[in-house]
Specification:
By secondary structure, this protein is an alpha/beta fold. It has 8 helices and 7 strands; from the N terminus they run H-H-H-E-H-E-H-E-H-E-H-E-H-E-E.
Length: 220
Amino acid sequence: MARTTLGLDDRLYEYFLQVSLREADVLRRLREETAALPEGEMQIAPEQGQFMALLVELIGARRTIEVGVFTGYSSLAVALALPADGHIVACDVSEAWTAIARRYWDEAGVADKIELRLAPAIETLDALIAAGEAGAYDFAFIDAEKTEYAEYYERVLELVRPGGLVAIDNVLWGGRVADPESNDDDTNAIRAFNEALKGDERVTLSMVPIADGLTLARKR
């Protein structure tokens, strides 16, 4: 029995996917199309999408926020898990990447659940707060500019209800957060964010070593 988190080599990872991954065909095809892009490494892992869909179901989420859409895998996974009247406010700045997302949202029949806002996410989140939406959301996923994580987090924490869940991606950052030789802006920002969040008594916290690291913060 392992007393620390088990590392996954290629063989064990393939087994893990074979016995656990339930990936809809539309998600698989989106993942494969995205993987062929030069920026394909920005896509979340399929097991992470499935995990977030489970979280959304567990908390009975209806209204959610996504900060950073890319080609739409995470928003599609969440939208498929939401009830018929579920709603996602999806924040991104790229027309090109989100055009791919729109195709798959349409094909999956969930486009009416997803409100894409093409603007800097901080502007969109501030607009939601100004519109009186504080406490109106059940779930939020942050996966955008790493140097702005702290600003995204403060805003989405205001927007989710007590008992709502905030999920933050890339918190292990390929292991660079633990490498003292890595001191680029993104790595330093994630380090600072992780350290600050550990002491945030407004939330119940768990960092999950799935994919590139996913922090879960439940608003108290």
